[in-house]
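Raw record, unedited: ABC transporter ATP-binding protein
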Amino acid sequence: MSTIVLKNICKSWGDTEALRDINLSCGKGELLVLLGPSGCGKSTTLRLIAGLETPTSGTIEIEGRDVSNLPPVKRNISMVFQNYALFPHLNVAENILFGLKARKVPKKERRKRLDEAVSLLGLSGFLERRPAQLSGGQRQRIALGRAIVAQVPVCLMDEPLSNLDAKLRQEMRQEIRLLQQRLKMSMVYVTHDQVEAMTIADKIILMKDGHIEQYGTPEDLYNLP
Ligand code: ADP
Ligand code: ADP
């Protein structure tokens, strides 16, 4: 059974048809990349899965449950944004734990999950710092930490590396892939960067003008005539 299934998804704003009959699925522990040029509908697709937008028509299922009408907090997903969405006045630990506190996870459990995330991400010396005192790569790790401590089956990533320089991009890409595999997360990962897609994906969905142009493994897409 696939972890995420989109069936006949359409999305319009007035006359703008952003998505037209999108059908896709992401298996358990699979990393699915949505690839395509700016404006083709990648972010909209991700935001629909997250529940940050509502489809004009079609249904979205997560772990066999129709979540089409559920708010983001009820969907069992975590999301990493391009700009990381960190709170400047909170330190690293508080930023990572923010969602858990809001969901009333007990303090002892919060502590345990923080320790795990921090050791996975190599953030142990930085817990008391604020985001402004950290490098771009470290800020990215805080955002990843937040996704890890949520301990949900689905992680959604919207151009997570686009604010980093080339060297860090490559490093963080590998780190994300290792974490995703180790934690067996089902991940939908949005990028416009073909090399990034080819190196990180199990499967790639190539989008164009609001529809799916190609679908397959990186090898399948690389070997296209
Ligand atoms: P991508 O992520 O591939 O760059 P988007 O999903 O952001 O593409 O956008 C797809 C299309 O939908 C674009 O034409 C964009 O301008 C339009 N769009 C996205 N969000 C909105 C919105 N809130 N209101 C109106 N049009 C939107
Ligand atoms: P990204 O680069 O991450 O795809 P965008 O710049 O496309 O982000 O969109 C940022 C926000 O603006 C999103 O919430 C998106 O839905 C909204 N948006 C995008 N295009 C339009 C548009 N043409 N009209 C109104 N809102 C839009």
